Give the backbone structure.
Amino acid sequence: MNYILYARYSPRPNAAECDSVEAQLHALRKHVQSHEGTVCGAFCDLAVSGGDDEREGLTNALEACRRGCVLLVTCSDRLARNFNKLEELAFLANQRGFCILALDGSIDTTVDTATSRLIRRIMGALAQYEREKTSERTSEAIKSKLDRGIAFNALAVPYGMRREGDRLVKDEQEQLVIKAVLKLRGEGMGYDAIAKELSRRDYRNRKGKADWYAMTVKRICDRAQAS
């Protein structure tokens, strides 16, 4: 069996609870090896939300899928956090003749029966319900603190994000810095060299200065590794 691997992590406040891309790919390759399969491609998206439809890694993974192969992920929310989007991907897989499989069983189109489709849709709907309830509870807790005049420490906002009312949203400028750091790190550059390169490119930190230090770069990389 031929496999296409896909991994993703999100720039979220609780990113440390998520598996890193490296850990996901390791688990996926271990599964392929145990089933005597062949890895035909591995794709990933770094610091990209599952709700973002414009994901280069996922687009490339889907393009690499051929009839009879399996698109393998650790869990369905690596592909999408929205039930409807997940169903769209399952439909696409069925139309093009490949399968989608999650290691945790949250999606499995290798068996296409009325029962398997029903189970997949029930699990997908329940997963989305749990995510939405968690989001509601978090928003309510934040609103309660704001109503009581409890200020949030700006340092608690993860790099790459900014606070917009009672929500954390992507900071586009900081996202560009994160992507640059991870790209340079992937090319083998050390933390000090990356810091100097960021300064040379005039990337600005949160203080609006082009002053970067190895420790700051390391923290960005560590957060990405932990997510």
